[in-house]
Amino acid sequence: MAVYKSKGIVLRSIRYGEADRILDLYTRDAGLVSAIAKGIRRTKSRFGGRLEPLSCVDFLAYEGRTLDTVTQAEVLRSFHAVREDLARLETAGGIVATTRALAGGDEADRRVFNLLYNALDALEGRAEGHGSVESAFALKLSMLSGYALRLDACVSCERSLDALDEEGFLYYAPPLGACSVPSAAGRATRATPSRSPTAPSTRSGRCSRGR
């Protein structure tokens, strides 16, 4: 069985059997990986708290038929502040769900790994405005995954995006990959405000008119 070493971010951890856990990690070198950490729930486990959800780890594993097996792990960054704050944790859950939906294959893409790491870093460093981090992440990951955004009309009411309110705000709904005018934003799932969108900005995650 091939042994490999990589960096990964733990997306999910599920109890398995009496003492094991099954992990989903987004790795720098192998994309999304499912692996088992044997004995991790025992009091004297060699893993300790090194494979907690959202942790960025340097790990050693060997390939299996259905699940790889993690044999060693070292924490590079725990993102403890994200896990301990309910608002940040909820936003991180949305980021993880988007990652699993759009980057769930086993093809490695270091841009996705870096984007995920930077999103968690931004989330940990912000006291508020967590929704904008998730929106920016979803927008950028959609672009990396080859999905075009609908920026010509409101996803909810089909009105032209030129129908702005006096403050010039539109709303971006990451799960829908589209924008909405203010009057229809309530019908757009998890919509967050952005200024005057037509072309996406990869730096801020906002939509800008691009004049």
From TrEMBL:
DNA replication/recombination mediator RecO N-terminal domain residues: 1-79
Cellular component, GO annotation: bacterial nucleoid
Annotated stretches, region: Disordered: 182-211
Entry keyword set: DNA damage, DNA recombination, DNA repair
One GO BP: double-strand break repair
Compositional bias (Low complexity): 187-204
The keyword DNA repair belongs to this UniProt entry's keyword annotation: yes
Entry's family note: Belongs to the RecO family.
Function: Involved in DNA repair and RecF pathway recombination.
The protein's name: DNA repair protein RecO
Species of the source: Rubrobacter marinus
